[in-house]
Amino acid sequence: MSHGVKTRMKDEIRAAGRRMTRTRRAVLAVLEATRYPLSPAELYARLKKKNIAIDPVTVYRNLTALKELGLIAQLELHHEGRFRYEIKEGRDHHHHIRCNGCGRIVDLLLCPLKKLTAMIEQETRFVVGDHSLEWSGWCPKCQ
Amino acid sequence: MSHGVKTRMKDEIRAAGRRMTRTRRAVLAVLEATRYPLSPAELYARLKKKNIAIDPVTVYRNLTALKELGLIAQLELHHEGRFRYEIKEGRDHHHHIRCNGCGRIVDLLLCPLKKLTAMIEQETRFVVGDHSLEWSGWCPKCQ
DNA sequence: GTGCTATTTGCAACTGATATGCAGTAATGG
DNA sequence: CCATTACTGCATATCAGTTGCAAATAGCAC
Questions:
Q1: HSE-up of residue A87 (Cα within 13 Å, Cβ side)
Q2: Nucleic strand C interface residues, CB < 7 Å
Q3: What pTM was estimated for this model as a whole?
Q4: Is the CB of A48 under 7 A from strand D?
Q5: Residues of B with CB under 8 A from a CB of A
Q6: Tens digits of per-residue pLDDT, A82-122?
Q7: DSSP characters for chain A?
Q8: Cβ-contact A78, B132 below 8 angstroms
Q9: pLDDT above 90: residue B85
Q10: How far is the CA of A41 from the C1' of C27 (A)?
């Protein structure tokens, strides 16, 4: 196994004519180490706690770039009104549920929607691209 | 039929100790006349075009109030990063698809998710509340 | 209609999330 | 280690939505 995840990511970044920088590496590292999608602000806080010098703007710019490169996914949780980001590498298509009480976010590994695409294309004559499916509710502790 | 939609809405507003005002009536009228969910800014623009004097802040406050009263629904379309609102009265549960090209929004009358609730509750131990399911793609004209 | 009270409104100012302009810095290929 | 060009930081701007407060008004009682 000569080609690790990090190397593969760097290759993809280079292939698009972009660079693997100190801050980009740090952003990716935090996203990789976190098992739920982070908002830019949360990500920035984690970088700060790790004593990594980075400007909030650079966090935004890196998230946008990595999203365009397809290395991370941008999502919006139910009624949260802001974006979150999570690493794509090694993760299957999935959705989320978020607790209205404590804000805890849990992955849902199911996706009942794959079969629906054809139906929707027929119904609307759209060419269906992406979808988002997000749930909210109350987690065990907050019930 | 002595009890129209308007009267019913006014009753619900009054029942909650709130008032049916000039601006609230206008906001409801525009939402009723529009067959897709509007952002606060779009709603404000339509009111202006109809020469209705209203402050943008009042639009926000009315939308919040009407949402709390359960008369309108707040939703977030796929990757749009802001809220939209639509009238609930007389409309079944549904979802949307939005064109990446022109922004056109079309209703999807299907909802494949009802059966899923029990499954998710079992899997996560959450008590499932609401969900959002939004699609994006390319509409016939933009393909 | 008159008057009363609580809700609403308009205006201004504010917050929070995200974007942009620009000059300086640093990652890559040669 | 040089040149090129992407990236970073800082300041500043924009956009969505919120909040404080005094003035306006809806709804109710008379």
A1: 19
A2: A 10, 14, 19-22, 39-41, 56-57, 60-61, 64, 82-83; B 13, 17-19, 21-24, 53-55, 57-58, 61-62, 65, 81
A3: 0.87
A4: no
A5: 74, 76, 78-79, 81-83, 97, 99-100, 106, 108, 110, 112-113, 116, 119-120, 123-140, 143
A6: 999 999 998 888 888 888 778 888 888 878 787 788 888 88
A7: ----HHHHHHHHHHHTT----HHHHHHHHHHHH-SS-B-HHHHHHHHHHTT----HHHHHHHHHHHHHTTSEEEE--TTT-S-EEEE-TT--S-EEEEETTT--EEEE---TTTTHHHHHHHHH--EEEEEEEEEEEE-GGG-
A8: yes
A9: yes
A10: 26
Nearest to A37 by CA among A91, A84, A92: A84
CB contact at 8 A, B78 and A132: yes
- Estimate to the nearest angstrom the gap between the alpha carbon of A127 and the chain centroid: 24
Report the interhelical angle of B22-33 vs B56-68 (nearest 10°): 80
Residue B111 has pLDDT above 70, yes or no: yes
Q: A128 to chain B: which residues are within 8 Å by CB?
A: 97, 135, 137
pLDDT confidence of residue A142: 80
Partner-chain contact B125 A140, CB within 8 Å: yes
